[in-house]
Design a protein that fits this description.
Distance between the termini: 33 Å
CATH class of the largest domain: Mainly Alpha
CATH architecture of the largest domain: Orthogonal Bundle
Helix content: 25-40%
Strand content: 5-15%
Length: 165
Protein backbone atom coordinates (compact mmCIF):
# COMPACT_ATOMS: atom_id res chain seq x y z
CA UNK A 1 0.00 0.00 0.00
CA UNK A 2 1.21 3.51 -0.75
CA UNK A 3 0.55 6.75 1.09
CA UNK A 4 1.91 10.28 1.01
CA UNK A 5 2.26 12.62 3.97
CA UNK A 6 3.54 16.14 4.36
CA UNK A 7 6.86 16.70 6.12
CA UNK A 8 9.00 19.79 6.70
CA UNK A 9 11.18 18.51 3.83
CA UNK A 10 8.27 18.12 1.43
CA UNK A 11 5.86 15.33 0.56
CA UNK A 12 7.02 11.90 1.71
CA UNK A 13 5.64 8.79 0.03
CA UNK A 14 6.06 5.29 1.39
CA UNK A 15 5.22 1.82 0.20
CA UNK A 16 4.58 -0.74 2.94
CA UNK A 17 3.01 -4.14 3.44
CA UNK A 18 1.74 -5.04 6.91
CA UNK A 19 3.78 -2.20 8.44
CA UNK A 20 7.03 -3.26 6.72
CA UNK A 21 8.49 -0.51 4.53
CA UNK A 22 9.69 -1.55 1.09
CA UNK A 23 10.42 1.85 -0.41
CA UNK A 24 10.06 5.51 0.49
CA UNK A 25 11.21 8.99 -0.41
CA UNK A 26 10.48 12.70 -0.62
CA UNK A 27 8.06 12.88 -3.52
CA UNK A 28 4.34 13.04 -4.13
CA UNK A 29 4.72 10.69 -7.10
CA UNK A 30 4.05 7.08 -6.00
CA UNK A 31 5.64 5.77 -9.20
CA UNK A 32 9.04 7.19 -8.18
CA UNK A 33 8.84 5.19 -4.96
CA UNK A 34 7.77 2.03 -6.82
CA UNK A 35 10.58 2.51 -9.33
CA UNK A 36 13.15 2.25 -6.51
CA UNK A 37 12.32 -1.47 -6.34
CA UNK A 38 13.40 -4.04 -8.93
CA UNK A 39 10.44 -4.75 -11.23
CA UNK A 40 10.24 -8.42 -10.23
CA UNK A 41 9.67 -7.67 -6.53
CA UNK A 42 7.15 -4.84 -6.70
CA UNK A 43 4.00 -5.81 -4.81
CA UNK A 44 0.96 -6.67 -6.88
CA UNK A 45 -1.22 -4.47 -4.66
CA UNK A 46 0.19 -0.97 -4.54
CA UNK A 47 -3.04 0.89 -4.02
CA UNK A 48 -3.07 4.42 -2.66
CA UNK A 49 -4.38 4.48 0.91
CA UNK A 50 -4.86 7.03 3.66
CA UNK A 51 -2.03 7.49 6.19
CA UNK A 52 -4.27 5.81 8.79
CA UNK A 53 -4.49 2.52 6.84
CA UNK A 54 -3.19 -0.42 8.89
CA UNK A 55 -0.42 -1.28 6.38
CA UNK A 56 1.16 2.18 6.62
CA UNK A 57 0.03 3.69 9.94
CA UNK A 58 3.06 2.52 11.94
CA UNK A 59 5.66 3.85 9.50
CA UNK A 60 3.68 7.09 9.10
CA UNK A 61 3.67 7.55 12.89
CA UNK A 62 7.43 6.94 12.97
CA UNK A 63 8.04 9.60 10.32
CA UNK A 64 5.91 12.07 12.27
CA UNK A 65 7.83 11.24 15.46
CA UNK A 66 11.16 11.65 13.67
CA UNK A 67 10.15 15.10 12.50
CA UNK A 68 9.24 16.25 16.01
CA UNK A 69 12.64 15.19 17.33
CA UNK A 70 12.28 11.48 18.16
CA UNK A 71 15.05 10.55 15.74
CA UNK A 72 15.19 6.91 16.85
CA UNK A 73 11.54 6.34 15.89
CA UNK A 74 12.58 5.33 12.36
CA UNK A 75 14.89 2.63 13.75
CA UNK A 76 11.96 0.63 15.09
CA UNK A 77 10.20 0.37 11.73
CA UNK A 78 10.83 -2.93 9.95
CA UNK A 79 12.04 -2.77 6.37
CA UNK A 80 12.43 -5.37 3.67
CA UNK A 81 15.03 -4.94 0.98
CA UNK A 82 15.95 -6.93 -2.09
CA UNK A 83 19.59 -7.32 -3.08
CA UNK A 84 22.80 -9.25 -2.83
CA UNK A 85 24.30 -10.39 0.47
CA UNK A 86 26.77 -7.47 0.24
CA UNK A 87 23.94 -4.96 -0.27
CA UNK A 88 21.86 -6.43 2.56
CA UNK A 89 24.89 -6.20 4.89
CA UNK A 90 25.41 -2.61 3.81
CA UNK A 91 21.81 -1.63 4.40
CA UNK A 92 21.92 -3.26 7.83
CA UNK A 93 25.10 -1.28 8.59
CA UNK A 94 23.41 1.96 7.52
CA UNK A 95 20.77 1.38 10.18
CA UNK A 96 23.53 1.27 12.80
CA UNK A 97 24.82 4.78 12.00
CA UNK A 98 23.61 6.96 14.85
CA UNK A 99 21.98 10.32 14.13
CA UNK A 100 24.49 13.14 14.27
CA UNK A 101 27.47 10.86 13.53
CA UNK A 102 27.67 10.58 9.74
CA UNK A 103 30.36 8.46 8.14
CA UNK A 104 32.38 9.07 5.01
CA UNK A 105 31.96 6.60 2.16
CA UNK A 106 35.45 5.27 3.04
CA UNK A 107 34.47 4.81 6.69
CA UNK A 108 31.29 3.09 5.58
CA UNK A 109 33.29 0.70 3.35
CA UNK A 110 35.63 0.00 6.29
CA UNK A 111 32.66 -0.70 8.57
CA UNK A 112 31.61 -3.31 6.02
CA UNK A 113 35.04 -4.92 6.23
CA UNK A 114 36.11 -3.85 2.73
CA UNK A 115 37.99 -0.55 3.08
CA UNK A 116 38.99 -0.48 -0.59
CA UNK A 117 35.40 -0.92 -1.80
CA UNK A 118 34.41 2.74 -1.50
CA UNK A 119 32.54 2.86 -4.81
CA UNK A 120 30.66 -0.34 -4.01
CA UNK A 121 29.71 1.12 -0.63
CA UNK A 122 28.46 4.27 -2.34
CA UNK A 123 26.42 2.07 -4.68
CA UNK A 124 24.72 0.50 -1.66
CA UNK A 125 23.59 3.96 -0.61
CA UNK A 126 22.41 4.79 -4.14
CA UNK A 127 20.28 1.62 -4.32
CA UNK A 128 18.65 2.07 -0.92
CA UNK A 129 14.87 1.95 -1.44
CA UNK A 130 13.43 2.70 2.05
CA UNK A 131 15.02 6.13 2.45
CA UNK A 132 14.91 7.65 5.94
CA UNK A 133 14.19 4.25 7.55
CA UNK A 134 17.57 3.07 6.23
CA UNK A 135 19.47 6.34 6.66
CA UNK A 136 21.79 6.45 3.67
CA UNK A 137 21.73 10.23 4.08
CA UNK A 138 24.20 9.71 6.96
CA UNK A 139 27.05 8.90 4.54
CA UNK A 140 29.13 11.77 3.15
CA UNK A 141 32.10 12.33 0.87
CA UNK A 142 35.54 12.15 2.44
CA UNK A 143 35.80 15.95 2.50
CA UNK A 144 32.52 16.20 4.43
CA UNK A 145 30.47 17.41 1.47
CA UNK A 146 27.09 15.87 0.86
CA UNK A 147 27.67 13.77 -2.24
CA UNK A 148 24.57 12.48 -3.95
CA UNK A 149 21.12 11.63 -2.65
CA UNK A 150 18.24 10.18 -4.67
CA UNK A 151 15.83 12.72 -3.17
CA UNK A 152 18.07 15.76 -3.64
CA UNK A 153 20.91 17.24 -1.65
CA UNK A 154 18.68 19.93 -0.06
CA UNK A 155 16.69 17.15 1.66
CA UNK A 156 19.92 15.38 2.67
CA UNK A 157 21.29 18.62 4.14
CA UNK A 158 18.05 19.26 6.05
CA UNK A 159 18.03 15.73 7.50
CA UNK A 160 21.64 16.00 8.63
CA UNK A 161 21.03 19.43 10.17
CA UNK A 162 17.99 18.09 12.04
CA UNK A 163 20.04 15.16 13.34
CA UNK A 164 22.99 17.27 14.45
CA UNK A 165 20.98 19.09 17.13
Amino acid sequence: MITTIDTPDGPFTLLAEDGVVLSSGWTDDPQRVLDRLPAGVRPADSALVSPEHADVAGPVAAVAAYYIGELAAIDRVPVHQFGTAWQLAGWAQLRRIAPGTPLSYAEFASALGRPSAVRAAASICARNAPALFVPCHRVLRGDGSLGGFAWGTPVKAALLARESC
